[in-house]
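Two proteins, back to back. First:
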Amino acid sequence: MAKIKIKQIGSPIRRPESQKKILVGLGLGKMHKVVEIEDTAEVRGAIAKLPHMVAVID
């Protein structure tokens, strides 16, 4: 399966608890951290909920 790299570009401070949980679920939590995970519909949906906090790296 294809993999994508996701970088955290926004802070979870003063964000709703649900957005913090999505970040943790993606394996993020600290600023500028990059993770490589499988490209699934669930991951794409989580990224779509946090466009102001995460970025997909080519």
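And the second protein:
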Amino acid sequence: MSFAPLTPIATLLTDLEVGRTSATALLETALERAADPAGEGARVFVHQMTDTARAEAEASDRLRRAGVAPRPLEGLPISIKDLFDVRGHVTTAGSKVMADEPPAEADAPVVARLRAAGAVLVGRTNMTEFAFSGIGINPHNGTPANPWDRDTRRIPGGSSSGAAVSVADGMATVGIGSDTGGSVRIPSGLCGLAGFKPTQRRVPTAGACALSTTLDSIGPLAPTIACAARVHHVMAGEPVRTIGRRSVAGLRFAVPQSLVLEDLDGTTAQCFEAALSKLSEAGAVVTEIPFKELLEISEANAKGGFAAVECYEMHSRHVIRAPDLFDPRVVVRIRRAGEQSAVDYITLVRRRAEIQAACNAVTAPFDAVLMPTTARIAPPIAELEASDEAFAKNNILMLRNCSVGNFLDRCATTVPVHEPGSAPVGLMLMGETMGDDALLSVSAAVEAVFR
């Protein structure tokens, strides 16, 4: 199963505007790819919203024919992760234990904003149960395979696994995911996509089944940074605007020498070093910094961090009444909440604020901090399904670098920097808190060097 290179939103909107395609045609192509028995559609979607999607596409086409000014996402097929409320649907968040919950009475704010912007919602995408892993394996719904090396069937990354594969395989133009420790950036990086995690408060998390109310953020998985920016602006309730084109020449990049470069596999290390060289050759100023403050994040999270205790608070009734319905590798992480006392949690809140302040002082002189998005390329699904030890080790290595941005409440992107046809490797750029537009502009400049 093979597809043409991913088409950016700007190209699709032009094609729609001049009549080279239609919203209905784009949707039917996406549905055909999802239905292909040789493809991943059955594992990508937990529910396809076919009837409503066709109605939305037809309505979009009628508006164009009537000469109504197009909305920012007019007629574009977009997938949404299974943790967002959609009116009339049960929000299962990748879990069997949620199947008997009542349907949502209203769309989550981000879903409502996507609809209002003209998006055609294709379906709800598969995910790690309760978004609690960076691997993307789901024993209840199956696991969609990474678009690279389909014969081996490698992990897509998590927790927004179906979102990434829906875009990579042409089942959606953009996928909407959540990011608590990298759940947008990890699958984007492993599947060769652009991904964006905004500063948490930029996009409302209401109506999304939470993993951690402290760390959760909402972001897009997309063909390019410009695509991600356009969708982000819609979800943030902000005017859609051009993020600006600039050169990388003169941009100042910091490369931490603590934590984020440890245990890299050969492919990732080689791609990262080549990416730094290419940026330097293009005129960027790349500076290695100790950044030992990052080591304090691991120490602060030693008892499970925010996610375990906050997830347990939200789902304790399910853990108590039906623990056997959980993915065993998820419920064991939720139960780590028992390691924390109230004093531990309050201490963690205080330590986070202290570490944020210290890190802000270190990175203030730079346009972005660079690191590999993940420490490894995507391993085989079967290898991790067969071994708890391999799963745990790889999960830590997938989450480690990305989770820095969530703990610090920074915006962050990932852009692909691998050679075409080789294992996808992402380069992560971390910006400052509320420096989202500046980071998107810098990321687009970096992306242009590699595209």
